[in-house]
Structure to design on (638 residues):
């Protein structure tokens, strides 16, 4: 009876102990205990770090930079460039947009090397703790989590395929939901995800559209742990494709070929057809179109809001102290991202279900989208930005600069109704986050 | 377990930048993080494209001129390895113009004479936004160029021309139809340049 056998037995026990209760939605308290120990450790570490060094310094922008002059005529003066140049330099030092596409910086270190940006060597004890952490995370937690995820995904494929063979419609639907839920619950355990759901009475219903802010592909697992959704997305090859086809067998999802996605009318029509069928599961859509770092909500693309139907907004906020869930797709591939997820301490997040919203009279899709976006931002404590998440890769449109130029022109044209110098300085001072 | 980005910045460099610009140690490391995050090519220098990736700067009507200020004419090897790249020292040197002027600094002894964020140097920065060819004069054409950048297509050539003419008339004292640096300074003598061209870098 050698050591490896012992290890295998212990390992299997652990997997079963975590997996089985997860499948049926009950908890044995293992994860809770783990989280408690983790919290205590991190608090102690934080305390040590703060004792040793001063608090982090932050750069802030200046609030305003001008006082009203006397009531001279407000047309062009040589000093107008000062406003534009100061604003420009401010945006070089710190801007609202580019910071959203990299991971949020932590106020105090959480004993993961990857978040160690500005923290220096503090003490031996802390280093030892960090070393222990590395061993625990890579040698114990990682294999455990990989096993659980593998089991979860295999179960998804097998289970949905089996359900797909069933003829009876009503039982089939119920079983399909059960299979999906179990699989996602196992996967959630595979990430050590602790999710707190709020306002469950507002959960998305059939025939509706669920919209949420997007931080990572894990968002799907987080949401699907508590309800069943029809997924929307592009058809992939490889493992993803296998999963997609399997899921499709047991209940209808909406997968688009790459070419189809360019045809907006086709996309909208298919989504509309799905939504109008009140027996089908609610669609899950992320209107930002890309992953943002969970400190802000960026522009919601209006496409989802033109389908009609009831919108169920959901706000997802991760706690960065335990693990950074943001997927920086320009820096990490999907596989290395998942590996980072599985070697974090845990994924802790809050999910708020918000009351359903519908488009109002006289409100167009863009205004509706902005209204929903503000609601989500407010609930999740996120900054509400009007900037497009697509700026991660694309250049900003010229039309925004033209807007700025137009506003300035109205100020300096020498007409009878020249604004006063003070009005002009007020405008110029407000010239920053103009959107 | 040191930091990653700032480990590429040596202590001697920080000291030199401190002397030249007047920024504090923590401000310099903080700005180095920012420099590093803007440097997508990871080659220790910023190009014009790196700056233009900042949306708020890209939509600023004077964005291109501001970016230009980081790439001075003639390659001073301390600040630019190539003409179209600026390294961290050059980056800090330009930003230093926007440091607030503190009272206790008025008598500070810096190696390069007047501090970079003095009123004169701030004014000179603004002057060079206009003076593209660096001949120490703002000609009517140069003024028109900047005006055109700020108003876009919304004002006609004639109107813009008359605004330019009026501005030069009011500023020009020696009759050469250009604005020299001293004339420029005179026009702005009542403007609180120190405050308008300062950004708060908290430390």
């Amino acid at each position: 009876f050698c050591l490896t056998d012992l290890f295998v037995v212990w390992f299997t026990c652990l997997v079963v102990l975590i997996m089985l209760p997860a499948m049926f939605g009950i908890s044995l308290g293992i994860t809770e205990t783990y989280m408690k120990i983790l919290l205590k450790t991190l608090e102690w570490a934080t305390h040590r770090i703060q004792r040793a060094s001063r608090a982090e310094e932050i750069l802030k922008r200046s609030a305003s930079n001008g006082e009203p002059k006397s009531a001279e005529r407000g047309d062009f003066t040589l000093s107008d460039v000062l406003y534009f140049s100061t604003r420009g330099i401010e945006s070089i030092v710190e801007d609202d947009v580019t910071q959203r596409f990299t991971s949020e910086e932590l106020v105090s270190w959480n004993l993961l090397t990857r978040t160690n940006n500005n923290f220096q060597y503090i003490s031996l004890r802390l280093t030892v703790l960090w070393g222990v952490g590395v061993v625990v995370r890579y040698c114990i937690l990682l294999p455990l989590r990989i096993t659980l995820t593998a089991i979860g995904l295999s179960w998804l494929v097998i289970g949905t395929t089996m359900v797909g063979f069933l003829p009876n419609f009503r039982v089939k639907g119920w079983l399909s939901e059960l299979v999906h839920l179990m699989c996602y619950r196992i996967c959630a355990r595979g990430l050590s995800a602790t999710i707190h759901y709020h306002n469950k009475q507002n959960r998305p219903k059939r025939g509706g559209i669920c919209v949420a802010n997007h931080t990572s592909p894990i968002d799907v697992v987080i949401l699907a742990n508590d309800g069943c959704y029809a997924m929307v997305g592009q058809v992939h090859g490889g493992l993803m494709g296998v999963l997609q086809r399997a899921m499709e067998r047991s209940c209808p999802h909406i997968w688009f070929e790459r070419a189809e996605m360019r045809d907006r009318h086709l996309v909208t029509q298919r989504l509309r057809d799905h939504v109008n069928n009140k027996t089908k599961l609610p669609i899950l859509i992320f209107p930002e179109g890309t992953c943002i770092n969970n400190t802000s909500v960026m522009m919601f693309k209006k496409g989802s809001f033109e389908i009609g139907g009831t919108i169920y907004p959901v706000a997802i906020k991760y706690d960065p102290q335990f693990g950074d869930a943001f997927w920086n797709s320009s820096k990490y591939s999907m596989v290395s991202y998942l590996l980072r997820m599985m070697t974090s301490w845990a994924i802790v997040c809050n999910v708020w279900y918000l009351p359903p919203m519908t488009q109002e009279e006289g409100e167009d899709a863009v205004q509706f989208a902005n209204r929903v976006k503000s609601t989500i931002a407010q609930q999740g404590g996120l900054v509400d930005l009007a900037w497009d998440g697509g700026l991660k890769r694309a250049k900003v449109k010229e039309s925004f600069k033209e807007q700025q130029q137009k506003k300035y022109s109205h100020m300096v044209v020498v007409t009878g109704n020249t604004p006063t110098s003070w009005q002009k300085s007020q405008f110029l001072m407000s010239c920053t986050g103009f959107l | 377990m040191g930091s990653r980005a700032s480990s590429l910045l040596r202590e001697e460099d920080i000291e030199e930048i401190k002397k030249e610009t007047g920024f504090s140690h923590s401000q310099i490391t903080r700005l180095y993080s920012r420099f590093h995050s803007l440097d997508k090519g990871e080659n220790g220098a910023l190009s014009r494209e790196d700056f233009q990736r900042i949306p708020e700067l890209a939509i600023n009507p004077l964005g291109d001129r501001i970016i230009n200020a980081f790439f001075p004419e003639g390659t001073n090897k301390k600040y630019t390895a190539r003409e179209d790249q600026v390294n961290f020292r050059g980056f800090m040197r330009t930003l230093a113009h926007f440091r607030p002027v503190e009272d206790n600094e008025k008598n500070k002894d810096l190696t390069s004479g007047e501090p970079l964020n003095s009123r004169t140097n701030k004014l000179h920065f603004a002057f060079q936004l206009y003076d593209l060819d660096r001949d120490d004069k703002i000609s009517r054409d140069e003024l028109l160029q900047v005006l055109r950048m700020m108003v876009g297509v919304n004002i006609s050539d004639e109107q813009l021309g008359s605004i330019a003419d009026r501005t030069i008339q009011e500023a020009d004292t020696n009759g050469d139809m250009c604005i020299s640096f001293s004339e420029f300074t005179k026009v702005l003598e009542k403007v609180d340049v120190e405050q308008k061209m300062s950004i708060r870098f908290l430390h």
Notes: Strands of chain B lie at 45-46, 86-87, 137-138, 179-180. The radius of gyration of chain B is 19 Å. Chain B touches chain A through 66 residues (CB under 8 Å). The longest helix of chain B spans residues 157-171.
